[in-house]
Design a protein that fits this description.
By secondary structure, the protein is mainly alpha-helical. The protein is built from 6 helices and no strands. α1 packs antiparallel against α6 and α3 packs across α4.
Length: 128
């Protein structure tokens, strides 16, 4: 289990570095109150909630995701699904995304992105 948490920790460190650096502007737009220079978990949760709405048309409230954000960024728990949501929500570019997956999985593997669930069963998604 220690290896698993070590991988999660290294991935969390890199994710935090990205959110404090090149992707900071994304969550800063969702900040209602500033907390100095550190990452605002509520603002990050708002960004994730917008992306999660593509999977759940009924919507996702950012408060539902705040603890998930905190756990992911503080080495507590970072799952494949959570990392995938961060990558989609922040539009994390391929080299950065590949590095995150490599740190989490200890191999260069990028899971195939899931298509948003559609309420219309007649819609097909072209995966070419």
């Amino acid at each position: 289990m220690a290896g698993h948490s070590g991988r999660q920790g290294r991935c969390a460190d890199e994710l935090r570095r990205l959110l404090e650096g090149p992707y900071r502007y994304v969550w800063l737009r969702a900040v209602s109150r500033t907390h100095g220079e550190r990452i605002n978990f509520s603002a990050v949760a708002k960004v994730l909630a917008r992306a999660a709405e593509l999977d759940r048309p009924e919507g996702v409230h950012h408060r539902e995701l705040r603890d998930r954000v905190r756990r992911a960024l503080t080495h507590d728990r970072l799952t494949n699904d959570t990392l995938e949501l961060f990558i989609r929500a922040f539009g994390i570019r391929s080299p950065d995304a590949e590095r995150l997956w490599t740190l989490l999985l200890e191999r260069p593997a990028v899971p195939e992105p899931r298509a948003p669930r559609s309420t219309d069963d007649s819609v097909e998604i072209d995966r070419r």
